[in-house]
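Operator note (shift B, R.M.): manual run for DUF4097 domain-containing protein requested after the automated queue skipped it. Running by hand, logging everything below so the morning shift can see what happened. Input copied straight from the record, untouched. If output looks odd, do not overwrite the archive copy; leave it for review.
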Amino acid sequence: ALDPHGYPSADRAFVAVTCAAGRSTSRCPDDGLTVEYDETLKRMVVGSDTLPGDVRVDVVVPLKFDLDIGTSHKGCVKIKNMECDNCQVDTENGTTILNSLKANTVKVHSRGGKVICLGTIYGNVDIQTSNNVEINKLQGSTMNILTTDGALKTKYIYAESSHLSSSIGNIELGSIHGNVTVQTNAGTIKIGSSDGCLKASTQQGDLDVYISQLEAVDLFSQDGSIALKVPISLKAELKLSGAKVEVSPEIHLQNIQSNTDQGHQTIHAFLNSEGGSNPLIKAHAGRGMLNLKSQTWIDSLNLKLV
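Run finished. Output pasted below as returned.
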């Protein structure tokens, strides 16, 4: 973004064309680049259909400019230190990197490019691609992250509502807050810490989930196993089922109802409670094993001694 102290009127934009290393500056083509500004619409358009792929276009604009960026083939996009109302990026196979962005809405749609979010991305985020998605921190009201073929990995999500899905890739989430839905068909799901309502499902993969605090939890794996970890003092109603259900000895269950039918075990019990209105944890492993054990918040951080 344009330095607001150097240009307090916010009436300047800078466009630079940079050649790849090894190309002579005198041979760096820029005649295919157009820069237009519409005073009535207050809109600047920077575009080219002829610049080669080893040429980079740097655009510096004032804060609050909405962004609508598109590239073809393997053209990449990088947005850093920007504030605006709306940010939209469309690529074919190029990588998109967002670094410290604040907006009302952030949309990144790519046919086959990677999406990387560094720093903190503030706003309502919609990311769709067929490649890998890596996210440091998202904060906003709604999050929709979809990859058809790639892996999805996040460190922190703070949102009222989040939907994260991958058709065949693994999903690895660090700390998630709010109402979260996680889906994958063939991949595994690992959640470091969940605080809020959680619904996670996979057809063929395993689930590994730590519930730090909860409102309601629904876990499902048709063919895989489920590792469910909770604080030892957590109060909840449990409905657990699987080909085999194992409960670690340190877990204190009350009012236990257990049933085994045709090789499938079901347990209905209360954790650290005799009943009443406790949040419900449902976990179903269709053909796999379900394991319930305790874990501390410190353990969930996976800290390593140096």
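Quick read of the result: The first helix runs from residue 297 to 300. The CA atoms of residues 40 and 250 lie 69 Å apart.
Leaving this for review. - R.M.
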